[in-house]
Design a protein that fits this description.
two-stranded parallel ribbon; TIM Barrel; 13 helices; alpha/beta
């Protein structure tokens, strides 16, 4: 009898262990067709109310150049946000904030947040005080050095609790605002160095982001100050297909208009609010299946564009980064969501992509 009971126990343990292993997902799972993962995404989605669904789209910033912590906590309590950019602070401060915010998420029955940072090699030591010193991107000269830098940055982010890195920059080096932040000083290094950075980052359970789509390096101006324009051919677009094919999981779209381009003219709109760029080019033509995030929505290149939050989501962006007023953005999107079936369908698709990423990060 004892042997039979032991055998039954072992069998039950094996079944449970097998079931758990089947449900264990990693970032590598995100792009794989998996019916069980699809079912889990749908189950989580169906558990959310309208406020929580729309909240997943909105990622304000906390830190010296972001919102006050009390503002973030208010947005969190009201189920209006789904992630946070940690912007200019110390390593210890950010670690403590994440622990506090996640404790609040449990209390308020929110989905766990994705926590992001501009942890580019050229910016990370300024953005996260106390992070391990690394070589700036334009001074990196070998793949081995790229991997070392990516691992160092990722180790720091894992210690803090940051799971979403807005790096690498894949722009050419001509533009002084973004050029020094990427590997473009030698154009031949952009794709292989970016790919190495992405693969190492994502192997450490952190989502990597290629930016700034469709290319910020060959324009002369600064999108922080005003809308910039690509005149004619999208010359930097060639940097993206190899990264997409290799599995980059996030791409950031810039506040750049496109003119004199018969196929991808944005008619004066920033790319972030242009369905031609976000959906038709990035999602359909290039076949990108990961998360599409806007550049900061409080930047000069988009802030004066009317109804920008709704238009960016309608264009196909999944996440609004740093809307000037997160509460207002949520309200505007919710208004459109409840009255426009096509828009509602687009929002639901984006939210399911975000939930899928949260599952693959091990957050759910």
């Amino acid at each position: 009898m004892k042997t039979i009971v032991s055998a039954l126990f072992i069998g039950l343990f094996s079944f449970l262990a097998s079931s758990q292993s089947e449900d264990k997902y990693t970032l590598e799972s995100y792009l794989i067709n998996d019916k069980n993962l699809d079912k889990k995404v749908e189950s989580v989605f169906q558990s959310l109310n309208e406020n929580s669904i729309i909240a997943q789209l909105i990622m304000p910033a906390a830190g010296r150049l972001g919102q006050h912590k009390d503002t973030i906590k208010s947005l969190l309590r009201d189920q209006l946000i789904g992630g946070i950019l940690l912007l200019n602070g110390t390593k210890d401060q950010f670690t403590n904030w994440i622990n506090e915010f996640e404790s609040m998420n449990v209390t308020h029955q929110n989905l766990p947040f994705m926590y992001s940072a501009d942890a580019e090699p050229s910016l990370v030591n300024r953005k996260i005080i106390g992070s391990t010193p690394v070589v700036k991107a334009n001074a990196i000269s070998s793949l081995l050095e790229v991997l070392k830098v990516a691992e160092t940055i990722s180790n720091d982010l894992n210690e803090i609790g940051i799971n979403y890195n807005f790096a690498p920059v894949v722009d050419m080096a001509k533009n002084k605002t973004v050029g020094y932040r990427g590997f473009g000083s030698n154009p031949g290094n952009i794709v292989p160095f970016s790919n190495a950075f992405i693969k190492k980052t994502q192997s450490k359970n952190i989502v990597a982001t290629a930016k700034h789509f469709p290319g910020h390096g060959l324009i002369s101006g600064d999108t922080h100050k005003a809308l910039q324009v690509i005149d004619g051919e999208l010359k930097e677009l060639k940097n993206y297909p190899p990264l997409i094919d290799s599995g980059v999981l996030s791409i950031m779209v810039a506040h750049i208009a496109v003119q004199n381009n018969s196929k991808f003219n944005t008619n004066g709109a920033p790319a972030t609010a242009s369905r031609v760029i976000v959906n038709d080019l990035l999602r359909d033509s290039l076949g990108f299946k990961g998360l599409i995030i806007t550049d900061a929505m409080n930047m000069g290149g988009v802030i004066r564009y009317p109804n920008a939050s709704v238009k960016a989501i309608d264009a196909g962006c999944d996440i609004l980064l740093m809307p000037n007023n997160a509460r207002k953005a949520h309200r505007e999107i919710k208004f459109e969501y409840t009255g426009n079936r096509v828009f509602k369908s687009r929002v639901d698709e984006s939210v399911k992509r975000i939930i899928r990423m949260k599952i693959c990060l091990g957050l759910l």
